[in-house]
Amino acid sequence: MDDCMALILAAGQGVRMRSAIPKVLHSLCGKPIISYIISAVKDAGVKKCVVVTGPGGESIKDVLGDGLDYVYQAERLGTGHAVMMARHYLTSDHKYALVLPGDVPLIKNTTLRCLYDTTREGGYAAVVLTAIMNDPKGYGRIIRDSQGNVTAIVEDKDADESQKAIKEVNSAIYCFDANVLNGALDMIDNNNAQHEYYLTDVLAAIANQGLKVGAVTVEQPEEVIGINDRVQLARAEMLLRREIAVRWMTEGVTIIDPTSVYIDTDVEIGQDTVIYPGNVLEHGTRIGRQCILYPNSRLSNAIIGDRVTIQSSVIIDSEVGDDTTVGPFAYLRPGTRIGKGTRIGDFVEIKNSIIGDGTKVPHLCYVGDADVGKKVNFGCGSVVVNYDGVRKYRTIVKDNAFIGCNANLVSPVEVEENAYIAAGSTITDKVPAGALAIARAKQVVKEGWVAKKFKKGTEEE
Fold first, then answer.
1. Is residue 400 part of an annotated ligand binding site?
2. Do 417 and 401 meet the contact criterion of CB atoms below 8 Å apart?
3. What is the 3-state secondary structure (H, E, C) of the chain?
4. Contact 326, 343 (CB under 8 A)
5. Is the dihedral of CA 53, 58, 62, 63 positive or negative?
6. What pLDDT does 458 receive?
7. What is the tens place of the pLDDT at every residue in 393-414?
């Protein structure tokens, strides 16, 4: 498709979204709506992509970045007007032009390729992508002649009763002969209910010149649904989530209840992994083989090895090695790297730390800004005290160290190999290899103290 460019219309205000965020930037399974359209266009083989933005559209360019061309539509005077703003691209080296809105995220690259092939091979001046809908309300209706060629598209607001009965609708996705489109833009006006320049009127203008206008009908109408409000956004999310779940189940992943699992589009999952209900797998997450994700975990940009078990935990911007167990109710914060065969237990929080292979942090612990070696044991309630109120410091715990229950390691501090920390200690100095560190007040027992206290209280009354 080197001789085809794409023009994506993204200047719509999206007032029904009731949002300060441009409609096409709302998130759908972890990506902006418009990014799906751009991916479909590029995967179809189109290299030149032009995006039409309007007031407030600077954020669209910020999100999409370089590699695309941008055109600004200062006044929103309709889809035909939006194409007029980019008409100088229609006189370039590209013979064909795909034109599509920025809010149809379920469109497939294979469909766009079919649309292009039909235009080129059939000698059409324009081809419109259509769908058959049981409830066509709100969509433009396709008008055909006796030979099946498209003669016009009538917008819903302008349609009469007989036209409203037509179930074949316009998807707002087209492939044009670029030169023909450029010339036809001069033939349309805004004499309609909306007082806008309709791109649909271009097809009638082309047909009136005796040129061929065809149509390609999608098999699944859901592929061309647009998103104009949050209800439609939720529907698209549901359809895309179902598609993602089916894809992974086909690849050998067990998903107990696909309707209750939320998997972003770029997540990767290994074979024989089992995912229970309530899991949320967000952008950038990669999960290995034979893992078990029990209910109600959230993983965001998390890299999970093979044979890992996770229970009701949150893992963000972190890595977990093979054969490790996490949770329940663990929180791995950004910058954390967990080794192989480790145990991160219940109500454990780890932040910006490296935890070596075979280390156990079983329960009720906080480890922050620490480099922990292999086969270290953290007792219940132990804490790495990494913050003095102004700065954060790192602690080093080397291989085979044993940290007793309710011990505090006050950073920066180092615990060397095979050292032991007595329960209840607050460690502020280096602990040598093989040493036992005890840092707590000596226990004092006063026999008979309770009886004396209460006897004294009685005398005072």
1. no
2. yes
3. CCCEEEEEECCCCCHHHCCCCCHHHCEECCEEHHHHHHHHHHHCCCCEEEEEECCCCHHHHHHHCCCCEEEECCCCCCHHHHHHHCHHHHHCCCCEEEEEECCCCCCCHHHHHHHHHHHHHHCCCEEEEEEECCCCCCCCEEEECCCCCEEEEECHHHCCHHHHCCCEEEEEEEEEEHHHHHHHHHHCCCCCCCCCCCCHHHHHHHHHCCCCEEEEECCCHHHHCCCCCHHHHHHHHHHHHHHHHHHHHHCCCEECCHHHCEECCCCEECCCCEECCCCEECCCCEECCCCEECCCCEEECCEECCCCEECCCEEECCEECCCCEECCCCEECCCCEECCCCEEEECCEEECCEECCCCEEEECCEEECEEECCCCEECCCCEEECECCCCECCEEECCCCEECCCCEEECCCEECCCCEECCCCEECCCECCCCEECCCCCCCCCCCHHHHHHHHHHHHC
4. no
5. negative
6. 61
7. 999 999 999 999 999 999 999 9
Q: Pick the catalytic residue: 26, 81, 94, 363?
A: 363
140 among annotated binding-site residues: yes
What is the identity of the amino acid at 235? R
143: Cα separation from own chain's centroid: 39
In the chain, domain spans = 4-224, 250-437
81 catalytic per annotation: no
Q: In the chain, pLDDT over 90 holds for what percent of residues?
A: 86
Whether 170 has a binding-site annotation, put simply, is: yes
Q: Is 18 annotated as a binding residue?
A: no
> Which among 305, 295, 317, 240 is positioned nearest to 268, based on CA atoms?
305
Residue 363 has pLDDT above 80, yes or no: yes
**Is the pLDDT confidence value at 459 over 70?**
no
Q: Is the pLDDT of residue 203 over 70?
A: yes
Whether residue 42 is annotated as binding a ligand: the answer is no
Which fold would CATH assign to domain 250-437? UDP N-Acetylglucosamine Acyltransferase; domain 1 (2.160.10)
Q: Is 36 annotated as contributing to ligand binding? A: no
191 known ligand binder: no
- As given in the structure block, the two tokens for residue 74 are 């200062």
The average confidence (pLDDT) of the chain is 94
Q: Do domains 4-224 and 250-437 have the same CATH topology?
A: no
Judge: domain 4-224, CATH 3.90.550.10. Answer: yes
pTM: 0.89
Q: Per the omega criterion (within 30 degrees of 0), is the bond before 328 cis?
A: yes
